[in-house]
Amino acid sequence: MKINVDTFQINDYLGHDFDCDCGKVHTTNLEIVKIKENVKEDILTYLKEHNYHTIYMIEDKNTKKAYGEELEDFLRTQSFEIDKVVLTGNVVPDEKTVFQILVNLKRPYDYILGVGSGTLNDLSKFTSKKLNLNYGIVATAPSMDGFASVGAALITDDLKTTYDCHVPTAIFGDLDVLAAAPMEMIKAGLGDIVGKYNCLIDWKIAHVITGEYYCPTIVKMVYQSIHKVVANADGVLKRDKQAILSITEALIETGMAMGFVGNSRPASGSEHHVSHYWEMKLLFAHREPVFHGIKVGLATPGVIFLWHELMKEDLDFDACKEKVRAFDKEKWTAEVKEKFEGAADGVISLEEKAGKNNIEKAVERIDVIASKWEEIHEIIDQELPSSQTVVDILKSVEAPYRPSQVGLDDQLTKDALVYAKEVRVRYGLLQLLWDLGLLEDYSTKFVEYYKNN
């Protein structure tokens, strides 16, 4: 069977193996997605059909109030045995929180049901994998794209790390609950989606330069999700249910896309790495967190601006090689220890394994970049929107589009551009700029862009 992006609805992607022109067979263990009013009846039907009787619910005090308590009471009236853990405070997906979830286990369970969004989904996914149980997620806010992905993003040893786990078998969302979610979380979901404009370009350029696997069908699937969200963006501030449904389904579909290709390429690029760097720095400083999608959204126009700036360069590729040969590993190590603080050892270890900053490999890549420069130009000119296009979308929902709007100063903005590539092993704009010896100069452009726009 083939994927037909033009006609498929969200559940058409489930329950099939898809032979793709990219050479892969795409499949997912996700069985059902229901985003609708009065969804608890669908949850009931699903649990009964699978003979899941003893349920462990993972929620926090906010999601318990939003829907967890109502769902628990309903399932108890249907003779389900329910235990739960209700996490308190600003829930951080770290070792301490995982222990809290595990220590509250009271008996063997048939199924884990998370109630919430980003952090609670990651914690439910990770816990269920460790317990060798299936899990489902009941979304209470359309705030991020990890619902259907295989990865769980946790903070271990102060470093944000994505663990390979498994997809949920079911995703549910009550439209009334989703539409009533905090507006910042809804804006975060939209911000996460507009970040795809850049990540898909990062992926395609990586394919051109490194030969990394790339799937045009999955790319088209993600673009379809972006267009659906943008077309309904004017309903976001009104909490229009069609706008909420569009965002929620787009977030799920991009998660499915990650599952289809086996990694986060269809949904995460340089804009996400910048967001991850900011997230770690806010955590180290014990500052109030900013929703992931909000940071992704505001990082996106700046990253897109740099792509277009790069296309204006008349590059001397021999000079680029000399710059990269001047890389000082000792200086880099000292800077990593200063900037990444408690996460520095993890970053250094990651580099030792991956060799992102290996000089000879970078020189080889420069030769490829030089030979592919015209093709790279065509991709950026034809496929990447302007930074202003993204800013206009963010402004239309009154979402932040400058780091200063969420308390990120010029130094944090500059540092994010320089050091964010160390957070992941992923070729994209940031690694490309490093290869060309332009990363430091472009970090200044990054800061100036936000000051002037």
General description of the model:
The protein has 453 residues and is of the alpha/beta class. It has helices spanning 40-49, 61-77, 95-103, 118-130, 175-179, 183-194, 196-210, 216-231, 241-261, 270-284, 292-310, 317-325, 329-340, 344-354, 359-383, 387-396, 410-419, 429-435, 439-452, and strands at 18-19, 25-26, 32-36, 54-60, 81-87, 111-116, 135-139, 151-156, 159-164, 170-174. It has two domains: 10-181, 3-Layer(aba) Sandwich (Rossmann fold); 269-452, Up-down Bundle (Dehydroquinate synthase-like, alpha domain), CATH 1.20.1090. It contains 19 helices and ten strands. The strands form three sheets. Strands 3-10-7-6-4-5 form a six-stranded parallel β-sheet, sandwiched between helices. It has a two-stranded antiparallel ribbon with strand order 1-2. β8 and β9 form a beta hairpin. The protein is globular, with a radius of gyration of 22 Å. The protein starts with 17 loop residues before the first strand and ends with a helix.
